[in-house]
Amino acid sequence: MSSFLILYGTGEGQTAKIAERIAATISERGHEASAIDVRDRPDSFTLEAYDAAVVGASIHVGKHQGEVRDFVSENRDVLSGMPTAFFQVSLSSANEEKREEAAGYVESFVTETGWHPDRIGQFGGALRFSEYGFLKRLMMKQIAKDLLTEERKPKSDIEFTDWDAVDAFAADVAAFVEGRLGDTPDTTEDSAM
42-56: per-residue pLDDT in tens? Predict the structure, then answer.
């Protein structure tokens, strides 16, 4: 059994939801997985306590959270010595025509931090219209106009996250770590005999 850190930054909560889902999927494979907001790390936090790390960030106004960028830059050497993955959450990832733009954000993050994760995932985010003020609601409707259809009324909150893709990413990361560390947990009940 390996221990996984899923460290994330979130603006409106969708990245936290995705991080929790990744942790749950990895846990179901028999590993320990802890999802931690980069801003809420305990005083006793140490990256070296984990066998593998998954880092997640969302895009707001073309940038990832500064706290996530700073964490990765400051811990690049430790991250480079363990199996790692990065996932990005953005509206661009939910739009077929803007996926290249989303990939550009990942490239910028890698260049800025100097970190090269083993696995990368990109997921659509969410619009939290119920939490926006009038001006932000107008701005977000304009930004997401290509994603808003008749079935997706812009008055209610909308998720663009493909949860099957999140589960597949988490399973792929877990399988990669298992292969790299030679640590495939035995989840059968007969293994105790």
Answer: 989 999 999 999 999
